[in-house]
Amino acid sequence: SGKSYFGQLRLDPVSPENAHALLDSLLGREVATASAKAVLIDRTGGNPFFLEESVRAAVETGVLVVDRGDYRLARSAGEIRVPATVQAVLAARIDRLSPEGKALLQTAAVIGKDVPFALLKVVADLAEEALHAGLIRLQGSEFLYETKVIPEREFAFKHALSHEVAYAGLLQDRRRALHARIMAAIEQLHATRLIEHVDRLAHHALRCEVWDKAVAYFRQAGKKAAARSANREAVECFEQALGALTHLPEGRETIEQGIDLRLDLRNSLLPLGKIRRVFDHLCEAEILAKRIGDRCRLGWISAFIAGHFWWSSDLDRAVEAGHRALALAHAHGDFPLQIVANQRLGQAYLSLGDHRRAGECFRSNIESLQGELIRERFGEVGLPSVGSRLFLADLLAELGEFAEGIARGEEGVRIAETVDHPWSLIGALRSLGRLYLRKGDLKEAIAILERGRELCQAWKFPTWVYGIAANLGYAYVLSGRVADGLPLLEQGFEQPVSMGDRSGYVRRATYLSEAYRLANRTEDAVRLGVQALEFARDHQRRAEQPLALQVLGEIASHRDPPAVEEAEASFGEALALAGELGMRPLVAHCHLGFGKLYGRVGKRQEAREHLTTATAMYREMDLRSWLERAEAELRCL
Predict the structure, then answer these.
(1) 286 near 300, Cβ under 8 Å?
(2) Is 153 found in the same domain as 109?
(3) Is the residue at 132 inside a domain?
(4) Burial zone of 227 (CB within 10 Å; 0-12 exposed, 13-18 middle, 19+ buried)
(5) Mean pLDDT of the 1-10 span
(6) CA dist., res. 388 & res. 197, Å (int)
(7) Distance CA 268, CA 337 (A)
(8) Domain count, the chain
(9) What's the CA gap between 364 and 358, in Å, rounded?
(10) Is residue 600 assigned to a domain?
(11) R_g over Cα of the chain
């Protein structure tokens, strides 16, 4: 046959289906091993000998472990290494190539698993005829195969294992020299389109230890990945850039780069829910900025730290950091920083219950961001033109201004769709769905939130997943689907806390408390309601205290018999605080709660007074489903 194999036995690759079947027989069909199977098939090209040996090596090295009779991954599937048996077989085959063939294969291996012909031609040091002949022989030996002819020829290794063994056969100095030549060749061949090849350039710059270029190329690659919302890839690139930066002499320029990379990391870690890691990077960036006296960068760091304090519900420090950022923005005429600081302050004021100041911050941003500025991110994860509208919509819902709130929410969705920014779109859908939920339009809320949930799952944004889950779960519960809603509510309550996100703790806790009440789990309902109230008081979240009190009032009111004094105290305190803060929907809900309570205990006159007030308020705010409930209670008196 002209081919040399171990023991002269030709063992051809099997089809992907048969490779999966073989791995199913070795590892079982559990979902827990799916990623390992995908890696194994990709790296072995479906060769059954390589598959079996790789599985054995993965078990021996502890990447795969047996757990109660089933295999599961103990570490990342990417840690599966080439077993010595396979290495020996492949190394022997490579050694049997001619010196020229072996050198060509190893040069191709340094280029990568995919090998553009134009690049190989520049770095291979072979005449064109010899290069073509060498490639034909490597294809015949089944190391390489041609993958593209148009627009440019390209080859690829038959499987990842051959690539790894060929690369490992090179001495370190030779590898480094080849990586340097390949980087220079890419820079020459694609001088006007370097951004298209920045991932390759970053890889080769790192391997040839040209540290300044490694920093620059990895940062560009990270920004490119972040622009398409590939946040895990972006984080890897920015961390590689930070690692490369440590090899450069420390000076002002490298310190500035270190600050900027940490801010880049913040924007890619946040969508992944890595809130604590974000804060660590921000603290490091702040130390560096203070060391060089960089007030402009300190302004940005302060704005982002304000955001972190909002996430962690440390609201006084959020306001302090937000004002510090805003002062520096004005001092340096930094319009983007002014926008970001305004939004951070607005968020903190909204959580504190200072609706007037919060509204001023959000409206100022909306008025400033017109025309093409709606597309600008200003260094943020999402679009401030969308974010300011969404927080304003939340504020308007608290005040009972639902018509304007819906209009602002719909504007946010349209902008996010126009700019094609998934993070902002999911946030816009969550906010708009939550607004309809508060309005009592459950069908509309569910449709919007389900769309947001589908996008979350597609884009893998943990930070949004749980916010969507909590609101959607609550909508399901209120529409009678308690069994569907409770798991989502529990997921939406527990996971954000574990990530360090306590910004929505009270609302999520009250949602879950009410769901437990409706599921007749009264003790759990009380426990969460009390936790929500204590958290709101401890963290100065004034606008959320009446929300927790109203939920506790409902629990007391629905006891058998009703705990009248307890319910009256909770509803009364909630009513007073909500009235002081101008939270009209919550005021109306408290009147409805009082009306239902007094109706149950035979105080018909008091019940009628509260229900009449509730119906008038619901009618004024056009809360039709709530109006129907209040009118039904009135008719029952």
Answers:
(1) no
(2) yes
(3) yes
(4) exposed
(5) 43
(6) 36
(7) 19
(8) 3
(9) 10
(10) yes
(11) 31
Measure CA 604 to chain center: 52
CA 154 to chain centre: 35
Residue 70: its H or E element: strand 70-73
Which residue range(s) make up the domain with 125? Answer: 87-170
pTM here is 0.83
Query: Could you tell me if 563 and 635 lie in one domain?
Result: yes
Predicted confidence band at 5 (pLDDT cuts at 50, 70, 90)? very low
Query: Is residue 137 in some structural domain?
Result: yes
Same domain flag for 94 and 139: yes
For the packed helices 462-478 and 442-459, what is the interaxial angle rounded to 10 degrees?
150
60 and 127 share a domain? no
Same domain as 110, residue 30? no
In the predicted model, is pLDDT for residue 9 greater than 60? Answer: no
Condensed to tens digits (0 to 9), the pLDDT of residues 553-610 reads: 999 999 999 999 999 999 999 999 999 999 999 999 999 999 999 999 999 999 999 9
Q: What is the pLDDT of residues 272-281, one digit of tens each?
A: 999 999 999 9
Helices (H), 114-249: 117-123, 128-140, 160-168, 172-189, 198-207, 211-227, 231-245
Q: What is the pLDDT of residues 311-336, one digit of tens each?
A: 999 999 999 999 999 999 999 999 99
CA end-to-end span of the chain:
95
Residue 143, token pair as written in the block: 């190391």
Cis peptide before 561 (omega within 30 of 0): yes
CA atoms within 13 A on the CB side of 82: 19
> Distance (Å, rounded) from C-alpha 158 to C-alpha 235?
30
Q: Which residues of 483-504 are buried (b: 16+ CB within 10 A; e: fewer)?
A: eebbebbbebbebbeebbbbbb
Residues 6+ apart with CB under 8 A from 181: 122, 123
CA distance 462 to 615: 40
Neighbours of 559 (CB within 10 A): 14
Residue 599 sits in the same domain as residue 622? yes
Domain final residue pick, 81, 109, 129: 81
Three-state helix/strand/coil letters over 253-276: HHHHHHHHHHHHHHHHHHHHCCHH
Residues 67 and 94 in one domain: no
- CATH code (residue 633): 1.25.40.10
- CATH number for the domain harbouring residue 126: 1.10.10.10
With left for phi above 0 and alpha for psi between -120 and 50, is residue 357 left, alpha or beta?
alpha
Query: For residues 369 and 385, is the Cβ–Cβ distance under 8 A?
Result: yes
Residue type, 386: V
DSSP type of residue 544: G
Residue at a domain's end among 112, 137, 170: 170
Tokens 């702040």 correspond to 286
DSSP string, 466-478: HHHHHHHHHHHHH
Residue 348 CB: number of other CB atoms within 10 A? 29
Whether 564 maps to a domain, the answer reads: yes
Type of residue numbered 286: E
Do 622 and 560 have their domain in common?
Answer: yes
* Whole-Å CA distances, 468 to 160, 183, 191, 445: 40, 45, 45, 11
Q: Quick one: tokens of 406?
A: 């819906």
Compute the residue count for the chain: 637
Q: Is the pLDDT of residue 65 over 90?
A: no
